Amino acid sequence: MNAGRGGVTNVVSQIAYGLHRRDGTTTAVACDTTSGSNVFESKGLQTFHVPFNRTFRTLPKSVYSLRNIIRCFQPDIIHSHSRWPSLVATMTGHRPHVSSLHAATLTRHGSRFDTGIFRKYLSPWGSVVTVLDESTRQLLIRDFGLSSSRVQLLPNGVDPNVFAAIDPLARRAWRAMHGIGDGQLVTLFVGALVQLKRPQWCVDALAHSTRAGLDCVLVIVGDGPEASNLRQLTRDMGLTNRVRHVGWLEQPNAALAAADVLLLPSESEGFGLVCVEAMLAETPVIRTRSGGAVSQIVEGVTGWSCAIDDHAGFCELVTKALHSPSQLCAMGQCARTHALEHFTEDKFVSKLCELYNSALGSRSPSASSAAAAK
């Protein structure tokens, strides 16, 4: 896997632990970055380094490394988590049993040939392919000629015991620790500070709400290349005293539970797992209709959504929501109920085991080994 913070790294960790708790399956992870390796190793997972750099210059080294790992670990299941690791695994002579696409669009391989008909040859999908929403499923069926039965819709899941509401005293203490008053309304952004996620929209929504007379603050959990620009924007708009830059948190559950509403104005999302985490913490969500929104947002019940390019509409939704704190509280409870019905870790792992069995035919992955090539 191409392993950075959050997102896919969290999902693979869930798979590894979920399989072990379910039937004792041993999982090894092959990933490319130090940050990803550190996360897996800190959790006791057997971790191997493979230079999944999405460039053909390092492809021979990647193939050699992964071939040795497969020879050593001898997995029953190979589960790849994006196109490039799938290509590397296939070139070792071990096409993945399961491939997962964690985005609504395809990341370009390191070659100008990754287009048109050549893209199909550079995309050796597994026997079963999992996607996060129906639009991505249709893309693979239409553009790659995969059969409808081969491409399975599998939303990510979250452990509801980790992400849950906290008691009023803990909620008040977290807010006080970050200089937030009892009567202030809290909007929250959690994620990588990159252009694609558009955290600046959250600052704009804060400005819109304060102009409407609301006493609110914005908490930003995350880091990334846009961090300095975001701080400058905050200063330019005169909102420094209303924005809290918390930085990256490996476990943002307390922040999610202490907020009144989570904001996710992304231009593109694979699924938006943080929205499910917020819902389980009884925090409703306002987001754009990128990947995952259709299944997560029941309008006016678990949250609200707007078109991906509707900046003004997003700001209006935030202001409207903050005008009714009691409604937000009631919606938070509905959001958790919805998440428990559709997006728990147990449901996710159970469905994944079914797909492993399907990929293996009559063989069962129980008490066996699985390798996640990320």
Q: How does this model look, in words?
A:
The protein contains 15 helices and 13 strands. The chain is of the alpha/beta class. It folds into two domains: 180 residues, Rossmann fold (3-Layer(aba) Sandwich), CATH 3.40.50.2000; 175 residues, Rossmann fold. Helix 4 links the parallel strand 3 and strand 4. It is globular and about 65 Å long. It starts with 6 loop residues before the first helix and ends with a strand.
Write a concise synopsis of the structure shown.
This protein is an alpha/beta fold. It folds into 2 domains: 180 residues, Rossmann fold (3-Layer(aba) Sandwich), CATH 3.40.50.2000; 175 residues, 3-Layer(aba) Sandwich (Rossmann fold), CATH 3.40.50. It is 44% helix and 16% strand.
Mean pLDDT: 89
Largest sheet: 7 strands, parallel
CATH-derived topology of the largest domain: Rossmann fold
Across the major sheet, the strand order is: 2-1-13-3-4-5-6
Total of helices? 15
Residue stretches low in confidence (pLDDT < 50, at least 5 long) are: 362-368
- Give the CATH H-level superfamily of the largest domain: Glycogen Phosphorylase B
Strand content of the residues, in percent? 15-25%
What percent of the residues sit in helical stretches (DSSP H or I)?
Answer: 40-55%
Number of strands: 13
How many domains make up the coordinates? 2
The ordered H/E elements are HEHEHEHEHEHEHEHEHEHEHEHEHHHE
**What is the CATH level 1 assignment of the largest domain?**
Alpha Beta
**Shape, principal axes of CA atoms:** globular
CATH architecture classification of the largest domain: 3-Layer(aba) Sandwich
